Amino acid sequence: MAFVSVMLIPVCYYLCIPLWITKSWRERFQFWMGCACYIFCGPFINIAVLLYAVWNMDSFGWGKTRKVISTDESSEGSESDNTLGHDKHGAGPEEADCVRLQPEDLDRMEEIAREEKKIGH
User: Fold this and answer.
1) Nearest to 79 by CA among 69, 91, 93, 65
2) Which of 27, 46, 76, 85 could staple 22 via S-S, CB 3.0–4.6 A?
């Protein structure tokens, strides 16, 4: 009973919002229909998103949205730790959006990482 009473407070608020915000009955009806979909489908969508996230939590394929390559002269002809020029499909820097970092940029990134470790981020 306590759960129902706590959940009814926002539902009453949702039902009252269109009375003072919207200008026409059509807008109010649309709001209430969307609210009904949210109230009845929202918990199931939350569970579906949770299960999807847990199922795919070790998939790092989404993390390669940006390629970073270095223009360091010492890395010419060989791949260094900071050069990510080619992806698994053989696409090089010419085919992908790449951010070219200078050695001073890498030094600054390392400095920022050290500062964040000190702070605790």
Assistant:
1) 69
2) 27
Per-residue pLDDT of the chain (121 residues; tens, 9 = 90+): 788 888 888 888 888 888 888 889 999 999 999 989 988 999 899 999 999 989 888 776 666 655 666 665 555 544 444 444 455 555 555 555 566 777 788 888 888 888 888 887 5
What phi, psi does 31 have (nearest 5°)? -60, -45
Same domain, 18 and 67: no
Using alpha carbons only, how large is the chain's radius of gyration in Å? Answer: 26
Find the domain containing 86 and state its range. Answer: 62-119
49 lies in the same domain as 77: no
- CB-based burial, 47-75: b 16+ in 10 Å, e otherwise: eeeeeeeeeeeeeeeeeeeebbbbeeeeb
Phi-psi category of residue 77: left, alpha or beta, with phi > 0 → left and psi -120 to 50 → alpha:
left
99 and 64 in contact (C-beta within 8 Å)?
no
